[in-house]
Amino acid sequence: MKSNSAGERAYQIAIHLIVLLVAASAVFPLLYVIGMSLTTKSEMIARDYFVIVPHAPTLEAYKRIMSSSVIWHSFVVSVLRSTVGPLLTLTLTAIGAYVLAQRTLPGRGIFLFFILATILFNGGLIPTYLVVKQTGLIDSFWSMILPIMVDSFGLLVIKIFIENLPDGLTESARIDGAGDWSMLWRIVLPLAAPALAAIGLFNLVAHWNSWFDALLYLNDKSMYPLQMVLKNMLTIDSVSGDSMNAMLKTSQSISTETLKMAAVVVGIIPVLCVYPFLQKHFAKGMYMGSVKG
Amino acid sequence: MAQPVPAAPSVPAPEAPAAEVTLWRRIVRHRMLYLMFLPVAVYYIVFRYWPIGLAWIVAFKDLKLGMGVLDSAWVGLDNFRVMFEDPEIVNVLRNTVEISLLRIVVGFFPPIILAIMFHDLSSGRLKKWLQSAVYIPHFFSWVIIFGIVFAFFSTGTGFVNNVLEAMGLPRVEFFLSEGWFRPILIGSALWKEIGWSTIIYLAALSTIDAQLYEAARIDGAGPIRRIFAVTLPGILSVVTFVLCLSLGNILFAGGEQILLFYNKAVLDTADVIETWVYREGLSRLQFSVGTAVGLFQSLIGMVVILAGNTLAKRYTGRGIW
Prior knowledge:
heterodimer, A: mainly alpha, 14 helices, B: MetI-like fold
């Protein structure tokens, strides 16, 4: 594919430049936010809040955040929902997909229809809220888990994956007298593990990033996940600036902006930690993301 | 096959010949599978179909706080009449369509162009690194995105305003300006998703036969000519497919993002169905009108997706199912 004509070289230089620019624009905001989060108040004022690389970096904002019980508490809630949620989702998805992949099962078509239909149509915000209320989940940790426990699309993806497993494997196990549970556990799960891992990881990130369900279903602020606390720290007409003020009160050395940016970094770091693992599954993510939009 | 049919068997047939395996027997034989499926079925009934059922009831009733769904009065199509007569809701519907159309128009071509450039990059290793970089923002929550946008566009300390001031220009109140709200909203969404949206195109590009490029090259086609002669025809069906599907979002304008970005000053241009249903329907207890608006949104969404899928199938031979 190598070519030495001037046109080819000019084209390569142009697209290299443009793509580099796009990539830089994806990364620069993060570096800027990190820079801001490390800047002292005096430097902010001296440099008119125009700081990209701080001259005298300080970890004061992170110390403030780490010493806040509100943040720690919400961090624990987020870690809990990002582990319990995906585990339950994976369990139900694996079992459901296994059942739906059995071609001889009477009623399979009806089940599939009702599952597919939920991708196209849903009850909407208020009816869902009413159901969460009627099931007694308001102000419960489980309001952030149960309503989104099965993702129809993930279920169908795994079902197709199981259907495409070589028949020979399952048949020989059947002849050996394996029941459905041992078939699922010993044969299907190990083979479907990569696909399930992809679903689990994307689900984990979705749980980590989620805040709207907490806004809807939780009045009790002690149940808030990290993203909700960050939201309250960041949004303009913030109702509960109290935790922010409490964090700032004892420190004159950093500004509100620095604290906000440190909060953003705290929200990003766990995602960046999972990112290398996510990368392996981008191809499948495309498969899911492309249709989910 | 051609062998003569044997004489009628004198032995009585075994209990259940294959043809007589009734549906009931098949169900009984699969009982363990149904048992396994039970939790999934319960989930779908409680958290997916119960809300759908409620939606169809509450939208035609006048549900008030403290009143059960069953006790509240039927009001026919009143809630829908309110929806099309209340100027605030009509404005919300208009905003929703405008913002989602803007999102589709602005967000459509950049990922295609970026994907083609990634595809044509000659350096493999660098390409991997750059791809990893542009995918990252997709995985940030809208809260985080708002924090980053705030760092760049806030009036007092934002990066962009600092640059404007350094250039001798006045600072702009981006978040309070009706004119700036939508560009900021759609621009930041493009920033978040441009990289991730290339993935479906990159998958399609990787299936184009390399020999076609070689042939085009031998015919003397330069890099730009090759894009129009080989690359674009190669991904046209996927491009059409994505366009048809994105039309299904015509009444979904990204409420989660707007809820974080908007404020009273920009309400007239920013308010969409999702934000209105949350703020007025749920928080201000207009349950029934809110449900009616949600039902309308869901119904139209479904019709448009089905139509888009039909279109996609007709023109590209590829659909969601």
